[in-house]
Design a protein that fits this description.
heterodimer; A: alpha+beta; B: three-stranded antiparallel beta sheet; 4 strands
């Protein structure tokens, strides 16, 4: 392509994607992210839903981002429900992913905006649209990423309100593709902006098994994603990563959000747990004052599932012994 | 929880059941069950237990009635393509 035409194309692409959003009440100051990497721009379409918004790519046939406005006080409702994964019929047949693209691929249909974030039946149902999905490693989706989603809801409850933008990252010269149509992201980000204190940060994980994750600044994640995620956030505040909730791994591999120490890069903490002495047996219910060691408390808490040993619900039993 | 339509394992790629912290997804080559749940000693616990039993029972029936059930399913091979965004 002629350089002049390429330049023109880039300018038009950026101009189109910097246009005001038609999805109201989802983005910080109603400003949708701007696409900075011009190669991401072709075949994009913004889709508004009841409580979230998606920028969809007809090239990857995934979202480039899903955006939400989380209000902590609204996050407590949990309802049992049936739903349907389905293709997004607002997209053209050539641009959208189909259920058959994911079938027998071994990949999960990973939500970018997760079902448990929503309050209305409409929004919860809508988030099962494939326009909100990426091919996600199943271990990642069900453990680490589920923990990050839970930690984000916990942070929204603490802070009151958060703007959250979640999306895939496609790195490297080669990518994997499923169904002959849908590109598999190499990484996933969840960028969080706290409007009360004008601060933000992002979780960043590989689309792979394991519990490792990074917390990076908004400036860093914008550079990696090729997207200006929060256009109205000041460049100065983008440079510092706010404190996000760290994920703590317990015996059952469930990840629980917990307040991290003040460093920006948080490594997941792993609770030490050694094989218990043979005298320990489930069935005998013991109180913390009857325990002789933290190990013993860990045994009854994790192996026997005695939740009463963790009164303050911080994921650690008998704080006097184990803290 | 009312399952307002029949969940027939392996019949489609769309059905999802969510209850407690559990998710059950229907796929053509598997049903995926993840999360955790308390089967409490109350009416809700009974409802959840029956729902799980119904899903597992129909899965077993479906598997037993499948001719030439393979030892392991075959995952479609993923392709490697140029990154259009790089």
């Amino acid at each position: 392509m002629n350089k002049k035409i390429l330049f023109l194309y880039v300018v038009i692409a950026i101009a189109i994607n910097a246009a005001p959003t038609s999805c109201r009440g989802i983005y910080f100051d109603n400003n949708a992210p701007d696409i900075l990497n011009p190669k991401l721009a072709p075949k994009t379409k913004e889709l508004c839903y009841d409580e979230f918004a998606v920028m969809h790519s007809g090239i990857s046939r995934t979202p480039l981002w899903s955006a939400e406005y989380l209000v902590g006080s609204k996050l407590n409702i949990k309802v049992d429900r049936t739903n349907d994964f389905r293709p997004e019929m607002r997209l053209s047949a050539s641009d959208r992913a189909e259920l058959s693209d994911y079938a027998r691929s071994g990949y999960d249909r990973g939500h970018m905006a997760p079902a448990r974030d929503f309050n209305t039946i409409q929004a919860e149902s809508e988030c099962f649209s494939l326009a909100n999905m990426i091919p996600q490693n199943s271990n990642n989706n069900r453990k680490l990423w589920a923990g990050i989603e839970e930690a984000t809801r916990a942070l929204a409850k603490q802070k009151g309100k958060l703007y959250v933008v979640t999306g895939p990252i496609f790195e490297g010269s080669n990518l994997q593709r499923i169904g002959g149509r849908v590109l598999v992201p190499t990484k996933i980000f969840k960028a969080i902006y706290d409007p009360t204190d004008n601060q933000g940060a992002a979780y960043l994980v590989n689309n792979a098994p394991g519990n490792n994750y990074q917390v990076v600044s908004i400036a860093q994640v914008e550079q990696i994603a090729g997207i200006r995620i929060f256009p109205k956030m000041s460049p100065a505040s983008k440079k510092n990563a706010m404190q996000l909730l760290a994920l703590q791994k317990n015996e059952n591999q469930h990840l629980i959000g917990e307040m991290a120490s003040s460093n920006n890069r948080v490594k997941p903490m792993v609770l030490a747990y050694n094989k218990p002495a043979s005298s320990m047996q489930c069935g005998i219910r013991k109180t913390c004052s009857k325990m002789s060691s933290c190990e013993e408390a860990m045994f009854y808490f994790h192996k026997c599932g005695d939740g009463r040993l963790d009164r303050n619900k911080d994921g650690i039993p008998c704080n006097k012994l184990c803290r | 929880m009312m399952v307002n339509k029949q969940f027939i394992p392996y019949k489609n790629e769309s059905d999802v059941l969510q209850f407690g912290d559990m998710t059950i997804e229907n796929r053509l080559d598997r049903i995926t069950i993840y999360g955790n749940i308390d089967i409490t000693k109350d009416k809700e616990g009974l409802e959840y237990a029956l729902l799980l039993k119904q899903v597992i029972d129909t899965a077993i029936k479906e598997l037993e009635n499948t001719d030439e059930l393979p030892d392991r399913i075959v995952i479609t091979e993923v392709e490697t393509v140029d990154n259009p965004f790089a």
